[in-house]
Specification:
By secondary structure, this protein is of the alpha+beta class. The chain is built from 14 helices and eleven strands.
């Protein structure tokens, strides 16, 4: 909303594009406006204070109520998440994976649980809400491994069953100690940099999916083009003392409103898709005037690119949607930080880009373009790095700019970015089991799951 304010909006937008905090300029501008207001009406300060005190019974309950509501919803939501617990599963790949990413798409669709409350007590007392899952690819000195961090009560059993059903040869190991524990929270002896990645444009426009790479046609391994392999090769080629942690946080998307714990009502993202399709169609409409002065609209033909884009948008909207945040962290011992590694990891994300449609790019990082302004005393960046490390370990996400908000990724898009590669991924350090399993463990439950 603030971007729409004349003059102020333009300044805020420029500051955001430069990665600068606009809070301080707004505070200064507010003080200037107050001083000018006093001067214009020639009012003494005592009258302003008296007016604020007299109207406090009106504005004070509203302000405190909004603050209390926000804090209360955060606390009960946190309690609900803690009650469900979390665990990290390491996925050890079989020697060969013949299935397309559609297999992991099925798994991601199965764990989509919006946790709709049955009544307001569950919303405002129990804190019932969608829980976050984390799809992770980790490289420790080039040793590449796949992890999934999930809530224990709601997801673990179902996820294991789904993974074994789609990939009979995998091994799933539940970690007693999370792999992130090896890095101290105070980063003593380590350097790190964190990046937030996300869709460059509106969530309505899909990224390039595995179907557009032809992976749904199950080509032979030597003919397969897997967009994930450049990223695996990049993180598999790092030095023994380097670490790269990639985290894709996915929270089932649902509408917002009082029933679900939000004061402001908003529909699901399909409305955004419809609005963007309407914009494309509107570009092709023209108003014409008849001889009697009446007006009518004509529609020119869509270009092949526009027609394909609309078809992909509408097809993508039919799949399960997740509010998604992508974060990756680069960690090294103190004094061994190599900036070249950062570019090698960022560049493979362009595999999912489509010019003029959408792609994945850097939306925020633990650095500033103008440090003399944003971090004049050199204390903010170290604090941000510690905060990012803590958030990664807790599988939490906080955006720092409007461009850094979570974006909608569907199950198809997520399966394109996170899936288990076959032999086309020749990264030698990619962790695989030495032999194919005969079958899944016999004690897994069967049948329908209600969770």
């Amino acid at each position: 909303m603030i971007n729409k304010i004349p003059f102020i909006g333009a300044i805020v937008k420029w500051l955001q594009n430069q990665g600068l905090d606009y809070g301080l300029p707004l505070v200064i501008w507010g003080f200037i406006q107050i001083i000018l207001l006093f001067a214009f009406f020639n009012l003494p300060e005592i009258q302003i204070i008296a007016f604020l005190a007299a109207t406090a019974p009106i504005w004070l309950p509203i302000m405190t109520g909004v603050l209390f509501f926000s804090r209360w919803m955060f606390m009960i939501g946190l309690a609900f998440a803690i009650d469900n617990g979390r665990t990290t599963l390491e996925i050890k790949l079989p020697p060969e994976v013949y299935k397309s990413p559609e297999a992991i798409e099925v798994v991601i669709s199965q764990i989509h649980n919006v946790q709709n409350p049955e009544n307001l007590f569950q919303t405002y007392l129990d804190g019932k809400r969608p829980l976050t899952n984390s799809l992770e690819i980790v490289s420790k000195g080039g040793d590449v491994r796949f992890y999934i961090n999930i809530p224990i009560k709601k997801i673990k059993t179902l996820l294991k069953a789904d993974l074994y059903s789609q990939y009979p040869g995998i091994e799933i190991q539940e970690l007693n100690i999370d792999y992130t524990a090896e890095i101290p929270n105070d980063l003593n002896g380590y350097e790190m940099m964190s990046f937030h990645m996300g869709k460059k444009n509106s969530s309505a426009f899909p990224i390039r999916t595995y179907k557009e790479f032809g992976m749904d046609k199950l080509p032979k391994e030597e003919e397969k083009i897997d967009p994930l392999t450049p990223l695996l090769e990049a993180i598999g080629s790092i030095q023994p003392y380097e670490r790269v942690w990639i985290q894709i946080l996915i929270t089932p998307h649902r509408e917002r409103g009082f029933k679900y714990g939000q004061l402001k009502k908003s529909p699901t993202w399909e409305k955004e898709v419809s609005a963007e399709v309407e914009k494309i169609m509107k570009k092709r409409s023209q108003k014409r005037t008849m001889t009697d002065g009446s007006e009518y609209e004509t529609m020119t033909m869509l270009t092949p690119v526009e027609r394909n884009t609309i078809e992909l948008m509408e097809e993508n909207a039919q799949h399960y949607a997740y509010e998604t945040a992508i974060r990756w962290i680069y960690i090294t011992p103190t004094g061994k930080f190599n900036g070249d590694t950062i570019g090698c990891v960022i560049r493979p994300f362009s595999q999912w880009d489509v010019q003029g449609r959408n792609g994945i790019g850097v939306r925020w990082r633990t650095d500033f373009n103008y440090k003399f302004y944003s971090d004049p005393f050199g204390t903010l960046i170290p604090a941000l790095k510690k905060s990012e490390l803590k958030s990664y370990k807790l599988r939490k996400y906080f955006n720092y700019t409007p461009a850094d908000n979570t974006k909608i990724f569907t199950s198809v898009e997520l399966a394109s970015v996170y899936h288990f590669p076959g032999k086309v991924a020749v990264t030698p350090s990619l962790s695989r089991v030495t032999s194919t399993r005969g079958e899944a463990p016999g004690n897994l439950p069967t049948g329908n799951y209600e969770y």
